Amino acid sequence: MMKSLSDVNTAFAESSVDDIIQHALELARKPVITTNFGPHEAAILHMVVQKKPDIPVIWIDSGYGTPATYKFADELIRRLNLNVYIYHPKHSRAFREAVHGDIPQVDTSEHDAFTQEVKLEPFNRAMTEFAPDVWFTAIRKEQTAFRNNLDIFTETQDGLLRVAPLFHWTELDLEEYLVGNDLPIEEDYFDPTKVLGNRECGLHTSR
């Protein structure tokens, strides 16, 4: 990119999501988008695949999703014809529960190890295999204190351009988009690596 990321973020601060996505795709040689098939994920997926239908969609399936999440994922994959790649932990949930028991208490070394095993390792494996130069994500500034300090365009520690087209959107903005485009909302989502809504799982903080 010729401009600094600060300049680019300033230039696109008031731009439409479509313009942000289009600009990022023009920069990209190997873009990917990640999803957890959470409550409002249909919005970002719908927006991006309209512009690049074959973009690889990376889903880290920890094995701890609710039945509603798996049904939602199946519906959205079929409806949007997503080019989805599913990554799992090296050990199944059944194996892990038999050997280590239930999900560890948050903010412990045991939970950190759990997060590494069920989310970060599969994610890092996916990123190594795809080696993208642009990563689309649905993170938004209002979600956590850490994310509030990011921006639409940021560079990860390993030089990957992370693009958050919905960065300035509110939950109400998302719900209006989903309703306006007749897209489903997943109401029963659970992330065992976060547990609490305002926690980071490490996927963004570690990059």
TrEMBL record:
Indicate yes or no for the key word Iron-sulfur. no
Which pathway does the protein contribute to?
Sulfur metabolism; hydrogen sulfide biosynthesis; sulfite from sulfate
> What GO annotations for molecular function exist for this entry?
phosphoadenylyl-sulfate reductase (thioredoxin) activity
| Assigned GO CC terms | cytoplasm
| Annotated EC | 1.8.4.8
Listed Pfam families: PAPS_reduct
Which EC class is this protein assigned?
Answer: oxidoreductase
Q: Which InterPro entries match?
A: PAPS_reduct_dom, Rossmann-like_a/b/a_fold
Tell me, which GO biological process terms does this entry list? sulfate assimilation, phosphoadenylyl sulfate reduction by phosphoadenylyl-sulfate reductase (thioredoxin)
Phosphoadenosine phosphosulphate reductase domain: residues covered: 31-198
Q: What keywords does the record list, in alphabetical order? A: Oxidoreductase
User: Superkingdom of the source?
Assistant: Bacteria
User: Which PANTHER family would you find in this protein's record?
Assistant: PHOSPHOADENOSINE PHOSPHOSULFATE REDUCTASE
The record's comment on protein family reads: Belongs to the PAPS reductase family. CysH subfamily.
Q: What is this protein called?
A: Phosphoadenosine phosphosulfate reductase
Q: Which organism is it from?
A: Parendozoicomonas haliclonae
* Gene name in the database record: cysH
